[in-house]
Amino acid sequence: MNESDQDYPTLWQSPCTKIRIIRCVDDLQYIVQGQQGGRWRNATFHFGKGLKGWASIHYRHGMSSEFESLPDQPPPDDPLKGYEASVINGEDVFKMFLNGELDET
Fold first, then answer.
1. Which residues contact 13 (CB under 8 A, 6 or more apart)?
2. How far is CA 13 from the centre of its chain?
3. pLDDT digits (tens, 9 = 90+) for 67-81
4. Domain residue spans in the chain?
5. Whether the model pTM is above 0.90
6. 92/76 Cα distance (integer angstroms)
7. Helix (H, G, I), strand (E, B), or coil: what is residue 104?
8. Angle (nearest 5°) at CA 28 between 14 and 25
């Protein structure tokens, strides 16, 4: 299945339904996609597992109104969540990432 397919597994979709987050086909990174002309187009790539990659999405897109409903943590069905944390906001996660406090597992 191609990452641009409508039926490709989605981890999060914006309330406006024009933005979604997926894991790449090789399960190495998160991809933020936007819908254009009936197809999903790659917008940004966020390498890393669990909170490390998710923090990158918050850092890049967190101030955009389209991302207001983006959870602070990866969805539980993320196969590479890999890092458990209590409720924590995206800015704190990014600071942890910069300080090397998040591992790759």
1. 19, 20, 21
2. 10
3. 999 998 887 755 444
4. 12-98
5. no
6. 19
7. coil
8. 70
